[in-house]
Design brief:
Layout lengths: L7 E3 L12 E6 L2 E6 H7 L1 H7 L10 E4 L5 H11 L9 H13 L3 H9 L6 H11 L2 H13 L1 H8 L4 H9 L3 E7 L14 E6 L4 E7 L10 E5 L2 E5 L2 E2 L4 E2 L2 E6 L4 E6 L9 E5 L2 E5 L2 E2 L2 E2 L3 E5 L4 E4 L12 E4 L2 E8 L3 E8 L4 E9 L5 E7 L2 E7 L8 E7 L5 E3 L5 E2 L2 E2 L4 E3 L2 E5 L3 E7 L4 E8 L7 E7 L4 H26 L3
Parallel strand pairs: 2-4
Antiparallel strand pairs: 1-4, 2-3, 5-6, 5-34, 6-7, 8-9, 9-12, 10-11, 12-13, 14-15, 15-18, 16-17, 18-19, 20-21, 21-22, 22-23, 24-25, 25-26, 26-27, 28-29, 30-31, 31-32, 32-33
Helix pairs in contact: 1-2, 3-4, 4-5, 4-6, 5-7, 6-7, 6-10, 7-8, 7-9, 9-10
């Protein structure tokens, strides 16, 4: 939908006009913003429609946006459009940002609001998204609330009944684990080639699916994109012969499909799933560590090369925080460099460096603005697992108290869901509550039933077949009737 002339007051003609060049003065309330026309045209559907309309309004160099839009909301929209990551914490700021995103149709601002969802603001964002009809934000907030439901039950009760029912109709993300296996012969199918999920009510691991016969999880890449599990590459046998194909598990159909692997054969690499793409970073081939990077668009399953990593790296830890990709590059024995890879710019940037004895990391996970790096302990206690926290907003490192180890194993893998972190070994599955200064043990459940190294991830599994039909019918109306009820309550005729 294009801009309404009732909400825009135009001033003098712009000598340049057009969408691609020049600046525009935009007045919101009593504040005048000087904005690059190209930035507006690229990120704001409201102005893009105006610039392409050919009307006299499209040639103005100053506009007055009326209709109750707040200057602070427009300021946040422009900051996000320039690639910034502004902190939006005050409830009024959240509402004003959502209002601006809806009024001016600023998709990057909607995406930024999705990125900042946490337990403190998810209820407000869920309700606000319903009021302004921001469907992506509405769904993302509902999913977050579903995942963190035990921590949010009291707050959820204040929502309209329809919105509560919508959250309860969703499936929370399940903790999934699989062992390390090489491809097997059809006549000698490995009975242990099984993917399990954690059934949290009894606290036990249950069967999900079997790995394809030709799939390898030995030195492979494992990641999740759009709720599908991807296994890329790997090796077979002691000679480390590379497996040059990839596999995808679809949770909805409970089926596997096969597609080509990266153009460069590799193993022991880092696989990151992000925004509809898979990224293979570094790895080894023919006993040589590489720095090459490839990306796969999962819609076409085609691989292309990206800019090389800053240096050669194998088995690097990675995490996605606020939809930003971070990768650890180790310099044994005591230096950890964390780089950010920005796909839209195809660019690597050094984010921070940590120098600590025995800094080699087991894994890295993200929670909100924080990156948590789990690393090995001193030489005389190598299995002791220490943790350091890096805040991507403040740029500060914090050593977490405790050493996150129990009498039967260390924290070598973790997955974050809501304010919880799940970790598992053969003896125990532990859930931690992530607090500002430490991880506090919350629950202890059964360990993983198989031995060896593990891959873990989160997958949103369908509800049982006997309830899915009713839930699907309710989901069909969720973004219509539910939101209409909220809009009518907030803005009665």
């Amino acid at each position: 939908m294009g801009p309404s002339r009732d909400n825009v007051t135009h001033f003098e003609d712009s000598p340049q006009g057009g969408e691609e060049s020049g600046v525009l003065r935009v007045r919101v309330e009593e504040t005048v913003f000087t904005v690059d026309r190209a930035v507006l045209g690229q990120n704001c559907e409201y102005f893009r429609a105006l610039f392409r309309s050919g009307m006299r309004d499209s040639r103005q160099n100053e506009f007055h946006i009326q209709g109750g839009l707040k200057a602070r909301g427009f300021l946040m929209a422009m900051a996000v459009s320039r690639g910034e990551h502004p902190a939006i914490q005050d409830p009024d700021e959240i509402v004003e940002a959502a209002e601006c995103a809806a009024f001016l149709q600023v998709d990057v601002l909607v995406q930024h609001l999705i990125e900042i969802i946490d337990t403190d603001n998810c209820i407000l964002l869920y309700h606000t998204a319903a009021v302004y009809g921001l469907w992506k934000l509405f769904h993302s907030a509902a999913v977050f609330i579903c995942d963190a439901y035990p921590d949010l039950q009291d707050a959820v009760e204040a929502l309209p009944v329809e919105m509560i029912r919508h959250v309860e109709s969703l499936s929370p993300a399940s903790f999934v684990a699989l062992g390390t296996h090489s491809p097997s012969m059809k006549m000698l199918q490995d009975s242990y080639r099984t993917v399990f999920y954690l059934d949290e009510k009894p606290g036990a691991w249950k069967y999900l699916t079997d790995l394809p016969i030709d799939a390898s999880t030995s030195m492979a890449g494992v990641a999740v994109v759009d709720n599908r599990l991807y296994i890329v590459g790997g090796v077979r046998g002691v000679s480390k012969e590379t497996v040059d194909c990839s596999f995808c598990y679809d949770t909805e159909t409970n089926t596997w499909s096969e597609f080509h692997g990266p153009q460069q054969s590799r193993y022991n690499f880092t696989l990151v799933g992000h925004n509809g793409h898979l990224y293979t970073i570094g790895g080894e081939y023919d006993k040589r560590i590489m720095s090459s990077v490839e990306v796969c668009d999962i819609s076409t399953r085609a691989w292309t090369f990206c800019k090389h990593a800053p240096r050669s790296v194998a088995a690097a830890a990675s995490a996605v925080a606020r939809r930003r990709i971070f990768v650890c590059f180790w310099k044994p024995p005591d230096t950890t460099d964390i780089y950010e890879y920005t796909p839209v710019k195809d660019e690597w940037t050094l984010t921070t460096t940590m120098i600590k004895p025995q800094s080699y990391g087991h894994c890295m996970v993200a929670h909100g603005d924080n990156l948590y790096v789990m690393r090995n302990g001193p030489c005389d206690d190598f299995l002791r697992c220490l943790m350091d926290c890096y805040n991507t907003t403040t740029g500060q490192w914090t050593a977490m108290p405790g050493h996150y180890v129990n009498s039967r194993g260390a924290l070598f893998t973790a997955m974050v869901r809501g304010d919880s972190a799940f970790t598992v070994n053969r003896n125990l599955t532990l859930e931690y509550h992530i607090c500002s200064d430490q991880w506090k043990p919350r629950r202890q459940m059964t360990g993983f039933p198989k031995s060896g190294s593990l891959w873990t991830c989160l997958l949103r599994l369908p509800k049982s077949r006997d309830t899915r039909q009713d839930n699907d019918a309710e989901e069909t109306d969720a973004n219509g009737e539910i939101v209409e009820d909220i809009v009518e309550a907030e803005h009665p005729p």
